Amino acid sequence: NAGVTQTPKFQVLKTGQSMTLQCAQDMNHNSMYWYRQDPGMGLRLIYYSASEGTTDKGEVPNGYNVSRLNKREFSLRLESAAPSQTSVYFCASSERTGGTYNSPLHFGNGTRLTVT
Amino acid sequence: AQSVTQLDSHVSVSEGTPVLLRCNYSSSYSPSLFWYVQHPNKGLQLLLKYTSAATLVKGINGFEAEFKKSETSFHLTKPSAHMSDAAEYFCVVYGANNLFFGTGTRLTVIP
Fold it and tell me: What residues of B are in contact with residue A40 (Cβ under 8 Å)?
């Protein structure tokens, strides 16, 4: 039972390069999320997908795009990386139905991204 | 608006002594509150959650938290710290269709 799997674990990009962070979950969860974690700032929501076929902006969506490829997979794309996007990125999933958070978030182990 | 404030960025305790991690929340209605733990180079894991049932909530690994509406607090406690408790802890409030994370408290356990 893998849970939430993120790839890659580490990545270094130059300013202006693009890349896609991959996320897959095997728990048959409806909802998936992308967060970024920066020192002293907790986690901030970038985008989320409440169900297959839908995506919505979170708190810090600028500079990112997402694709909910199917129920299992939710990818995050940086079209033109900037140093301000240096961060640790976490994917999460949950059962979440009816707009509630009573079911817990299950997190991947993160992708550490550095943009030079 | 919903938010949480974790009052200590870093807490150090000796092994076997009690743990207290403090969290105050702000919410315009009855909140749902959570504590998550993050071990080094890992994702976050749910410790416990409060959703307006009992005010004293028991979680995994011996942790518990008490919801105090009059003090707008949701402090995390454990009677006796273990070395394996060394991690970062996040207090989280649900609101406006989103989760709002505190800035985290790093717990160090001294042998």
Answer: 9, 103-104
